[in-house]
Amino acid sequence: SKQDNNTLTQQDMQTSLSLTKDYAELIKSRTVTEGVIAQLNLDLTHEDLLKKMAVDSATDTRILSITVTDADPYEACKIANAIRDVAANHIKNVMDIDAVNVVETANIPDQQSSPSISKNGIIGVLLGVLLSVAIILIAYISNDTVKTQEDVEKYLGLSVLGTIPLTETDRKKKKKKQKQKKARGRR
Asked: How far apart are CA 13 and CA 7, in angstroms?
């Protein structure tokens, strides 16, 4: 007799969990979303409202959680409560049951859920550093100019017989450019 009661209880739980999945699908149905849109006079389509809402159930429970994401937290709260009410009536009619119990109403969050400014800022800084390093490496690797006597010997396999020194005006221009680079680097 005890085994029959345990088996019955486990079967009841399995049936209840299956019904919970059915209820979640009914909440996402067009009848519910269009009812909410009409009730709140929203400028949304069925698909738009589905993108804003999520219906989840905790593991091994029969409790459904309805989450609505919107730029305005007060609007999100109104939509979530309207979904709850319209869905409760729809589930009663479709499943032919007496009542759907509501555990709690929607609340207005204390803080913004997304976008996370600090997270996005850190990601932006990291991507900027990576991009800068990549550009510098590509510029360095692709620079194939010959600058010194050692470069001539290394890349061309020729020995240098002589060099042409810079003229006085060329040396002054070179020094002036170096000073300008240093001045820019200090800023």
From this structure: 10
